[in-house]
Design a protein that fits this description.
By secondary structure, the chain is α+β, with helices and mostly antiparallel strands. The protein has one domain: Beta Polymerase, domain 2. It contains 7 helices and 10 strands. β3 and β4 form a beta hairpin. α5 packs antiparallel against α6. The C terminus is likely disordered.
């Protein structure tokens, strides 16, 4: 394991240990979540993607700053933090009548992911630390929905690789994503 990977893994464990002790739920997403779900590391990661309820975000921000993190960039729905050259991408979501809403980069358009994307959360224990991971289906839905809602955000090679891995490893290749069930809902801001 290379040094950066080991540092990121240690950071994930520290964050989850800290937030578990404060009863603040947070979900690991993106490449690191896929690595945990598949129980192996596929590629090196630029950052660590985490989802948190908007209602818990201020507590998280204070905890991170108190533990040496700095804010690099802050938008309505997303904040990038850095500590020791390691990046965290924190994405806030809102509970909205059993849906999870997300706002685009301009803050104009909101969509909602249903609880179904999160209810299948995988719980993973690493060195007795409890990690919440967005489920394989939730990961697939997030990746595909983001591309449909924001066509200007083209799928990157790593997104295509992750879609392929999720579809093949978790038998999701022929799944028909029911956007009514899984939550593609547009709202006006």
């Amino acid at each position: 394991m290379d040094n950066k990977t080991e540092q990121q893994l240690n950071l994930i464990m520290q964050i989850f240990e800290l937030l578990n002790s404060k009863n603040i739920p947070i979900w690991l997403a993106g490449g690191w979540a896929l690595d945990f779900l598949c129980n192996r590391k596929f590629v090196n990661h630029d950052d660590i993607d985490l989802f948190i309820r908007k209602s818990d975000y201020d507590k998280l921000e204070k905890l991170l700053i108190d533990n040496g993190f700095e804010i690099v960039n802050k938008k309505y729905h997303q904040t990038y933090f850095i500590k020791d050259s390691l990046y965290l991408d924190i994405i806030k979501f809102e509970d909205f009548k059993n849906f999870i809403s997300y706002v685009d980069l301009n803050g104009n358009k909101t969509f909602c992911l249903s609880e179904n994307s999160f209810q299948l959360t995988n719980v993973y224990f690493h060195n007795s630390i409890k990690l919440l991971l967005i489920s394989p289906l939730g990961q697939l839905i997030l990746t595909k929905l983001l591309n449909q809602i924001f066509p200007e955000m083209k799928l990157r090679n790593k997104d295509l690789r992750n879609i392929s891995l999720l579809e093949n490893m978790f038998n999701l290749k022929n799944i028909n994503i029911d956007y009514d069930k899984y939550g593609l809902k547009y709202l006006t801001s």
